[in-house]
User: Fold this.
Amino acid sequence: MIEADLAIIGGGPAGISIARALRGRGPQIALIEGGGLEPSKASQDLYQGEMVTKYRGEMDANYLTNTRLRYFGGSSNHWSGWCRPLDAADFQQRDWVPDSGWPITRADLQPWYLRAAKLVSIKPLVEDLHRWSTSTRPPMKLPPPVRTRLFHYSAPPTRFAHTYRKDITSSPDIALHLNTSLIRLVAGAGGVTSAECVGPDGKPVQVKARAFVLATGGIENARQLLISGLGNDHDLVGRYFMEHPNAMRAGRMVVGGASMDLYGGIQRDPVLGGRSRGILTLDPSFREQQRLLNACLYLWKFDEGPRDELEQSMGELAHELALMAGLDVLEQPLSGAVIGIGEQRPNRDSRVTLGDDKDALGQPRARVDWRLTDEDADSLRQTIRHVGHTLGSAHTGMISVRMSKSQPWKRTRGGAHHMGTTRMHASADKGVVDANCRVHGLANLYIAGSSVFPTSGFANPTLTILALALRLSEHLSGELSP
Assistant:
């Protein structure tokens, strides 16, 4: 038997961050990790499941294993390091986005974002470009409604197992249990009484604690609750599964009058330090007026010249417009692919359920049915069109939109971001967890990770996962104090 004040199920970035934040603050912590210190085929096979959606070759059954890693450190072991907070508008209820709105605000999370930035070794969050400088020319000066914003990069990407392993293993307050797999959570009157696990020797292990945190990822959190029969009084567990649709080669952009240093790749800021990439977004007020979801565009594989006849004509026109406007022009127009990252509208029918197949532990495997809609595609397509119109009116460049109305998701993949399946809401009939990430109806069970996101925005979820985990650790510190 394992006994502790707090049992954290899952040794990924969220679980490690919560345990680390509570060191020396009183609670005895059991950190339960299903995998070992290194990857293994047997452990990874437990993440096999059924992927119903097939937008492209990437969206097949291997999605569940390719986008998750089942060993200490979790998916941070292959994380690419993209960091950005959600926008303030992402937390707000929007009348044109059903089921939108968080019970907390961006301001509530801001102090935790700043602490999260330190965990992944990025500079203090810089969102206004007047504090950013490029090594050559400044960013494009574009009129509203287009804005240049930044992604920051944890470089090299923080591997939580490597970076924070010593903090975990050397703490007298934390007991790390590897190769210990959760079978089910057992609840009594008002709360969870124990976690039934299988230890590294294959024998049953019972975990008892005053409080439990489920931190096993956006798919697995829902799967474990469904297996345990907990938190699902209103049939919400597993629903509202969200990804970030990445529309690959959604257009071609030709620029005839601006430096693309910031937009065409990752750049180091010579003043502030750190590494960033420029992205193009629309003003929140304009999105509200046009009833659009949030989205951003970034650019990929810039060349010294356009590749086809259409792009050649676009480049020549962009070059001439820039000359006429008196802008600093490039000797040769640049061209590149436009990648669109969209927010997905919350969709009750996009969901994680239990499949018919069983894993090696006898547990039902996950079944993921990711459902994008024509509305999601149209919003992203309209964003690209508005950015292109603004580039043209500013005599800076042009965009040829290549998202087809007849096949809007033909060249689309997910960002490997699993969100929304245990969504946060103040009311139990609209969410699985409350504002403190506590499962409604269970006094001592909490969820950590992007499964609690009610909406996704377009930003990669890691930084928000960490901010919420640190905020939860503060709440638990109060709850578990003597």
The longest strand covers residues 204-214. The chain has a mean pLDDT of 88. The domain at 2-479 is CATH 3.50.50.60 (FAD/NAD(P)-binding domain).
